[in-house]
Design a protein that fits this description.
The complex is a heterodimer of chains A (194) and B (471).
Chain A (H helix, E strand, L loop, with lengths): L5 E9 L6 H4 L19 H4 L21 E4 L11 H8 L4 E4 L4 H8 L4 E4 L2 H13 L4 E5 L4 E4 L5 E3 L4 H9 L3 H6 L2 H10 L1
Parallel strand pairs in A: 1-2, 2-3, 3-4
Antiparallel strand pairs in A: 1-5, 5-6, 6-7
Chain B lengths: L4 H7 L2 E3 L6 E4 L2 E4 L5 H10 L9 E4 L16 H17 L2 E3 L9 H7 L8 E4 L13 E4 L2 H10 L1 E4 L3 E8 L8 H12 L7 E6 L1 H4 L3 H9 L8 E3 L4 H7 L9 H10 L12 E6 L6 E3 L7 E3 L15 H11 L14 E4 L7 H11 L9 E4 L4 H9 L2 H8 L2 E2 L20 E4 L14 E4 L2 H10 L6 H4 L6
Parallel strand pairs in B: 3-4, 3-6, 4-5, 6-7, 9-10, 9-12, 10-11, 15-16, 15-18, 16-17, 18-19
Antiparallel strand pairs in B: 1-2, 2-8, 13-14
The chains are: A alpha/beta (194), B alpha/beta (471).
Chain lengths: 194, 471
């Protein structure tokens, strides 16, 4: 799994609520049997017209915006359990997603791939959106060790929660399978008791 | 100490619990399908690991299969490759596969229960968010991502935080034309598409207790549509009667032993839930969604809410949804012309759903402007429908009975709703493009969907229930 510690980057703002995994990657693009290449179809139907030309008004098609941090409205990643959503976001070059609320399964999938989901308050999210609207290049600094997000230009800072175990997985690049495999004897003992 | 049902089942499956870490939770049954498993099998190969407990793993092909001419090679190359990959992976890792052509094939959440694989007290997972369906039997069942599919393959366990618990009680008698689908659409409309996030929901109350297993599955199925990982219902005589005699259900002494255990599976009277909500069945009318998430639902006779009545921060997203749907605030949906009706999906494709639709459409004829698809949830449901002569009724009414699969629920396989078209659908999601690029979905019960097919418009089915169908 990818390691994550710190990142300072401009952001791509997507101020829409309830962005579901069908918007992140529509089911018709889930036919691949490997983890790579899904980034091409990230937000497919918002990003492209039916004839495969780019939709000029979508933020990812606006050259003014770039960066490795995606910022989205609340309840991001609701809907299906498709991990392809996390893969697509990562494959398109993002390392962090910031929202004021995440759907459970998406959050777990992101963490299992080294994509950091950061939940901030509604007020801080609004502050990020308004800062970026004024200055498209405004950067955020994400510090996983100290669990903070900072708007670099203003110094406004907010802490975020992350499970201590998941945090150590991200910092060290370990995954859950490594962790459980170390305890396989316990699983076999448990099976005997059933 | 008194416990909720979720806590009882959870505690019986904890391999290890350590402060500061998620629990290691043992998984009894792992269901897999073609879309979310290939990368997990690849992961095993990279790590040089076998599937730890292949006998506790069951596979089927459902998401990416055609629902016509299933025995012919799949036309679309990537889909064919994905389904073939499942066959190869199952052979290589020793997993039982109910693939196309097998008499047990079907939607993963339909076949588990009908084969007696889904049982009270089990922990069950699948790389599909509607795994919550199996909770109808009093099981802890939830959807997982592909990395977790790989975890379960490798260890038969998952690292999981203990969820919060919510009880949703529904009491009283349902009105005419109101079914399980309306109950769950009503609850989601009340608490929003995110209102259950972080919780496992136990459904209880006299209304729920009176429901059949099929109806209970419909309710638990849509738990994820309010963000809950899982939903469950305490097992009772209706549950036991459904399970008894099914293909893989316990029998003989095993049955008696199992039954004795199942009878301990209920929330203790003084068990503490993190949240409790209570609804009155009499307040529920036939429901329909008007927007682009399942929380945007209303009683079918109501007016679409006004954008100005939404929280200020939500108005832009709300208006975007109405624009996508091509509808106006503060207007009625009843009378709106529609193009497709889809009766199927893991929410509403069981024999009881098909019987209900058949009874209603018998002697009626679908509207000319509508294409009406009925897609059974499994080969067994299809065969049962044919044995009961339902296929003839559907045919006479102008409905097309297709072969089992997820079909038009998710816009992945050949069955898609064309751009701009309206579909009244018994499935579970009305997201933008869910049923095909730019398609527009109104979620509803099988009865409401059938009524729309007959009139060609969004229809309050209660107005037709008083009219006798013509023979």
């Amino acid at each position: 799994m990818r390691k994550f510690e710190k990142l300072t980057s401009a952001v791509v703002p997507l101020n829409i609520e309830n962005i579901d995994t069908d918007q992140i990657i529509p089911a018709r693009f889930l036919k691949a049997t490997t983890r790579e290449g899904f980034g091409e179809n990230l937000f497919r139907d918002w990003r492209y017209n039916g004839d495969h030309t780019l939709k000029a008004d979508f933020v990812m098609n606006n050259p003014d915006y770039s960066g490795r941090i995606l910022v989205a409205g609340k309840n991001f990643g609701c809907g299906s359990s498709r991990e392809h959503a996390a893969w697509a976001i990562q494959d398109a070059g993002f390392d962090v997603v910031i929202s004021s609320f995440f759907a459970d399964i998406f959050k777990g999938n992101a963490l299992n791939n080294g994509l950091l989901p950061i939940q901030v308050s509604d007020a801080f999210l609004a502050e990020i959106f308004s800062t970026v609207e004024k200055d498209h290049n405004a950067a955020l600094q994400v510090d996983l060790e100290n669990q903070t997000v900072t708007i670099v230009a203003t110094g406004a800072k907010e802490g975020f929660e992350i499970n201590a175990y998941k945090k150590s997985c991200l910092i060290n690049g370990y995954d859950d399978i490594d962790f459980i495999l170390n305890q396989k004897h316990l699983i076999e003992e448990f099976e005997q008791t059933k | 100490m008194s416990k909720t049902l979720v806590e009882k089942i959870w505690d019986a499956h904890v391999v290890k619990s350590e402060v500061g870490f998620p629990d290691i939770l043992y998984i009894d049954t792992h269901l897999i399908h073609e879309v979310t498993s290939p990368q997990a099998f690849d992961g095993l190969r990279k790590r040089g690991l076998p599937v730890f407990r292949p006998q506790q793993t069951v596979a089927t092909a459902d998401h990416n299969v055609p629902t016509l001419n299933q025995l012919q090679p799949i036309k679309e190359e990537l889909s064919r490759f994905q389904v073939d990959m499942l066959t190869k992976n199952c052979a290589e890792f020793g997993i039982e596969l109910y693939g196309l052509g097998h008499p047990f094939q079907g939607i993963v959440h339909v076949i588990g229960p009908e084969l007696g694989i889904t049982l009270p007290g089990k922990t069950m997972v699948c790389g599909d968010s509607h795994t919550s369906t199996h909770g109808a039997f009093g099981a802890i069942a939830f959807g997982i991502g592909t990395s977790q599919v790989e975890q379960v393959f490798a260890t038969q366990c998952l690292l999981q935080q203990r969820p919060k618990t919510m009880k949703i009680e529904v009491n009283g008698e349902l009105g005419k034309g109101v079914s399980a689908k309306d109950i769950i659409l009503y609850i989601i409309a009340k608490i929003s598409a995110a209102g259950g996030t972080g919780y496992f929901i136990e459904y209880a109350g006299s209304t729920i207790e009176a429901l059949s297993m099929e109806a209970r599955m419909t309710i638990c199925n849509m738990s994820i549509e309010m963000g809950a990982r899982g939903g469950l219902i305490a097992p009772d005589q209706i549950t036991y009667d459904y399970i008894k005699g099914r293909e893989f259900a316990p029998a003989g002494e095993e049955w008696d032993k199992a039954l004795a255990y199942w009878k301990t599976l209920y929330s203790d009277a003084d068990a503490k839930f993190d949240s409790v909500l209570t609804f009155d069945a009499a307040d529920i009318s036939p429901m329909i969604t008007y927007g682009t998430n399942p929380g945007m639902g209303m009683g079918i006779a109501a007016h679409i809410p006004a954008t100005g009545d939404q929280a200020v921060s939500e108005q832009a997203s709300f208006q975007k949804a109405l624009d996508y749907m091509g509808i106006e605030e503060d207007t009625e949906l009843v009378g709106k012309a529609i193009d497709y009706v889809f009766i199927g999906s893991c929410t509403n494709s069981r024999i009881e759903d098909l019987r209900e639709v058949a009874e209603f459409v018998k002697g009626r004829q679908k509207a000319e402007n509508v294409i009406a698809w009925i897609v059974p949830g499994s080969k067994q449901v299809e065969q049962q429908a044919i044995a009961e002569g339902l296929d003839k009724i559907f045919e006479a009414a102008g409905f097309q009975l297709r072969e089992p699969g997820c079909s038009a629920c998710l816009g992945m396989n050949e069955d898609k709703i064309p751009a701009g078209k309206y579909c009244v659908s018994t499935s579970n999601r009305n997201f933008e493009g869910r049923q095909g690029p730019d398609s527009r979905t109104f979620l509803a019960s099988p009865l409401t969907a059938a009524a729309a097919a007959i009139t060609g418009k969004v229809t309050d089915v209660r107005t037709l229930l008083n009219e006798p169908a013509h023979a």
